[in-house]
Write a structure and sequence with these properties.
2% of the residues lie in helices and 37% in strands. The longest helix has 8 residues. It has a domain of 136 residues: Lipocalin, CATH 2.40.128.630. It is elongated. The two termini are 26 Å apart. Strands 28-36-35-34-33 form a five-stranded antiparallel sheet. It has a four-stranded antiparallel sheet with strand order 1-2-3-4, with no helix packed on it. A four-stranded antiparallel sheet has the order 5-6-7-8, with no helix packed on it. It is mainly β and 491 residues long.
């Protein structure tokens, strides 16, 4: 969690809370008595923490190693993910002084604060404490919690103005029906104002979506591709439906990503494909298929940008931007220059225009000059393989991640993907003939054509080298603009 120029974080799974300088990453303070902090809020200079205190069980053992997926699955559905005994603490952020403590049952992720109050679900009811003293202000009527939460789950409890919003499981006897309800309570006394059905949302047991935007409480039927996508906006105080609409776009809907939706003043940000920007006032959907967030955390709309962390998601891999990204809307004052003249695109190398030092011959029928052999990517070659006992003839250590190979004119060519390199070896002996370093990652081997090695790079350029000695013939900028982003520790 970040506040001003401070970052509040635990530096291990069962570590105490530390505060770091946001600019340098240096540890400013580690708070005493906060070992195994799980939830962190900061409200008016006070840290509100949920801690697995002395004698209180951890939800997962940081020392445990799993032998099978079945064994791991038991821990991801451990009952402690639903509810566990916890110590709720208020700590002065500057001095580290503990202001008060309270032991209670706690439903995962149900902790909330608004500067005057601290609220949480204790497994049966919502409790409201005075933020300054920890004294009880009120206790709600019994409100259902979701049973059998996974490690990816949690409750949704939202404080907005003088209303408390909460989502909980109603029909636990028929979990497949996903019958959930959301509740609105008065923040003054905890009395229930209204209750209404909740559309199916999220994936893999992620917390329910309840988003307040434009003065209404929103959620949508977006859990699965077959769901309608209907967005329902209810009055904050009465629960009456004030706005409701279905998608006005036609696209391939996938199941929602494994995290809660987010919102800004103008847009609801759901994620059945990449990110759907839903203008709730205009009732208009804008789909952005290429970006989504990390599991559980999702994306973060802030500073007029969308921050999207790196992630290993393979559920919707057809379109996927890698790396840690900060995304901005189109700007009228910062338009990229799309029409770049060839004189600025083409860079001539030292071998440009020079005659090849060897006679160009027709490709040999048993060469493999490009990825999967030919332009049709057939993956086959007309050659004879003699049956024999196979043994290693040579070995050449190039290091790092290597691409597939190509072979032409007695030489072998391979790309060193993360090192931005292309290597040429003698195919018979493995002796290195030359190597070349580009300005970006190279994920495929070069194509060998008439004595030249051609390949593309993540720096936006196509390269042409002399296949005989590795000298640069030319480099052509195919990308419309020279912009880089971080991915795989590369730019």
């Amino acid at each position: 969690m970040a506040k001003g120029d401070r970052v509040y974080v635990t530096l291990d799974i069962d570590a105490p809370l530390s505060v770091l300088d946001a600019a340098t990453g240096k540890t400013i303070r580690t708070y005493n008595g906060t070992k195994a902090t799980e939830e962190i809020l900061c409200s008016k200079g006070v840290l509100i923490l949920s801690v697995a205190g002395e004698g209180q069980p951890l939800r997962s053992d940081p020392e445990k190693r799993y032998a099978t997926l079945t064994e791991m699955s038991k821990d991801t559905t451990n009952p402690l993910w639903t509810q566990a005994p916890r110590t709720i603490m208020a700590v002065d952020a500057d001095s580290g002084k503990v202001l008060w403590k309270k032991e209670s049952g706690l439903v995962s992720l149900s902790l909330a604060a608004d500067g005057r109050r601290v609220l949480f679900h204790d497994g049966e009811k919502i409790r409201c404490l005075d933020q300054r003293t920890g004294q009880s202000l009120w206790v709600s009527e019994p409100l259902p919690k979701k049973e059998g939460m996974r490690s990816s789950g949690g409750a949704t409890l939202v404080l907005y103005d003088d209303v408390v919003l909460y989502s909980g499981q109603v029909n636990v006897a028929k979990p497949r029906e996903r019958s959930t309800s959301m509740f609105a309570l008065s923040v003054k006394d905890g009395k229930t104002l209204w209750q209404s059905p909740h559309h199916p949302c999220g994936h893999m047991g992620t917390p329910d979506d309840m988003l307040v935007a434009g003065g209404l409480v929103w959620n949508g039927a977006v859990a699965q591709g077959r769901d309608s996508g209907i967005m329902t906006g209810r009055d904050l105080y009465s629960g009456e439906v004030k706005s409701e609409f279905v998608p006005d776009v036609s696209t391939h809907w996938f199941h929602h990503r494994c995290y809660r939706a987010k919102a800004t003043d103008k847009y609801l940000l759901f994620s059945r494909t990449g990110i759907e920007f839903i203008d709730h006032a205009a009732k208009h959907w804008i789909c952005h298929h290429w970006v989504r967030g990390a599991c559980h955390y999702g994306i973060m709309p802030c500073n007029g940008l969308i921050y999207a962390p790196q992630h290993p998601c393979a559920c919707y891999i057809e379109a996927k931007l890698y790396g840690f990204s900060a995304l901005a809307p189109p700007s009228q004052t910062a338009q990229p220059r799309r029409e770049v003249p060839d004189t600025e695109r083409l860079i001539r190398g030292p071998a440009y225009g020079a005659l090849l030092e060897f006679q160009v011959s027709e490709p040999k029928p048993d060469d493999w000059p490009t990825f999967r052999h030919d332009a049709e990517r057939s993956g086959a070659v007309k050659t004879t393989v003699q049956p024999t006992d196979l043994k290693r003839t040579w070995c050449s250590e190039l290091g790092g991640k290597l691409s597939t190979l190509v072979v032409a004119d007695g030489n072998l060519f391979v790309a060193s993907v993360d090192a931005h390199g292309v290597h040429a070896l003698d195919a018979a002996t493995g002796e290195q003939i030359w190597s070349f370093t580009a300005n970006g990652r190279i994920d495929s081997p070069p194509t060998i054509w008439q004595g030249h090695a051609l390949f593309g790079s993540a720096d936006g350029h196509v390269y042409c080298l002399n296949a005989n000695d590795g000298r640069l013939v030319w480099r052509y900028r195919a990308a419309p603009e020279d912009k880089r982003m971080m991915s795989f520790d590369q730019r």
